[in-house]
């Protein structure tokens, strides 16, 4: 993103942000509650239109996309992991992951094969109801779902915020290995400075601007 501004009424939430995340790289964004971290993610997802500036994801300027084309690009190029997994509880992990592939227009048998392979790799039981899984297993399912359409950019909003310490560390190990394993960029928004410290770069969003985290005081 370059020169990104986002205003809400007369409040300038994001101001002149420049950020580049390359394939194979991880970046963490920390910052006080209400500083605009989720808004930043929404701009990257094309869910919010910046007031000015450009967002380019996987070589496509999001200003050129609308409606279905935006949804299609998002589906093809971006994987998203939420704090609470946001999975369908009554489906199996395999169905949850395969569903994202089917929506991404993968062929049915390929979708289910890839879902199984990813869940195996991440050590998640496949054929139980998702609401029977532990918190860590759910987040690993969410990671598999985010990866199934081979995204160029992975976004994660507090991906370990709902986990105990050991599980948090395990999920973080998996997450931060992904850029190299899958040649995607990873952008993690978190309040957890231990998690942020695992990223190649840590930025702090404060007063609408991004700063290298070492240059500012912690939350
Ligand atoms: N649609 C909206 N209408 C009005 N205010 C909004 C809207 N969306 C976000 N805000 C405000 O914008 C600010 C930034 O919100 P945002 O969710 O991006 O912050 P955040 O850094 O992700 O916070 P947290 O760490 O608590 O999740 C907040 O003050 C929020 O109340």
UniProtKB/TrEMBL annotation:
Coiled coil region boundaries: none
Any Pfam family hit: ABC_tran
Gene Ontology molecular function terms on file: ATP binding; ATP hydrolysis activity; transmembrane transporter activity
Domain ABC transporter: 4-217
Cited InterPro entries: AAA+_ATPase, ABC_transporter-like_ATP-bd, ABC_transpr_LolD-like, P-loop_NTPase
UniProtKB keywords: ATP-binding, Nucleotide-binding
Record's GO cellular component terms: plasma membrane
Family: Belongs to the ABC transporter superfamily.
Protein name as annotated: ABC transporter ATP-binding protein
Source organism per UniProt: Kitasatospora cheerisanensis KCTC 2395
């Amino acid at each position: 993103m370059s020169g990104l501004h986002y205003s809400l009424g007369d409040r300038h939430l994001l101001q002149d942000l420049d950020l580049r995340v390359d394939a194979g790289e991880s970046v963490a964004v920390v910052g006080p509650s209400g500083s605009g971290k989720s808004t930043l993610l929404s701009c990257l997802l094309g869910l919010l239109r910046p007031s000015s500036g450009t967002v380019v994801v996987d070589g496509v300027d999001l200003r050129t996309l609308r409606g279905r084309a935006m949804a299609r690009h998002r589906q093809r190029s971006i994987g998203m992991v939420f704090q609470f997994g946001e999975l369908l509880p009554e489906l199996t992990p395999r169905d949850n992951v395969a569903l994202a592939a089917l929506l991404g227009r993968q062929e049915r048998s390929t979708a289910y094969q890839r879902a199984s392979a990813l869940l195996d790799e991440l050590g998640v039981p496949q054929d139980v109801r998702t609401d029977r899984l532990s918190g860590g297993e759910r987040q690993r399912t969410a990671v598999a779902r985010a990866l199934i359409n081979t995204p160029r950019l992975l976004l994660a909003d507090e991906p370990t915020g709902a986990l105990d310490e050991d599980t948090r560390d395990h999920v973080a190990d998996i997450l931060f290995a992904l850029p190299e394993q899958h040649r995607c960029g990873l952008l993690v928004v978190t309040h957890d400075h231990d998690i942020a410290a695992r990223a190649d770069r840590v930025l702090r969003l404060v007063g609408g601007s991004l700063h290298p985290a070492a240059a500012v005081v912690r939350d």
